[in-house]
Amino acid sequence: MTFTVENLDKVLKDIDAYTKNLETKLDTFLERLSTLGAFRARIDFSKAMYAGDNDVEINVEKTATGYKVVATGQAVVFIEFGTGVINPEHPQSSEFGFSHGSYGQGKGANEKGWVYVGEQGNAGQPIRDGVYRTYGNPPARAMYNASEDMTKSVSKIAREVFG
Prior knowledge:
By secondary structure, the chain is of the alpha+beta class. The protein has helices at residues 8-46, 76-81, 142-162; strands at 57-62, 67-72, 114-117, 125-128, 131-134. The longest helix has 39 residues, at 8-46.
């Protein structure tokens, strides 16, 4: 870009317009990545095996630096990381302090399962009204998978947004 004293105002306006356009595209890029992640997380949480009330909700929230995918509900950790030692371990369980089989006051370490009072969900085995047996549930890896999908889609979405 060349400029002279005479066209300095135009150059500054062009730079300002370019910067605003870039900021808008960056916001669009981050929102699309987060929306993709939220979509994947919703699917994986909704189809997860869980002996209890699957109360997980997924939202995309705007932050000062972009967007974040947020999972809320009392069942999030149990569904994401799984419970019961007979199920496979989540790839990040130790990273987040959830050692395999330690959930539910250590009941998850019992290979013969455990009994609980509450909701049957889609994995509880009825014993009597309101009482169920479970061996835990496999990790849904919903947020983990969402993160993987987002990582794999960075280049594709960037090309679409930034052209």
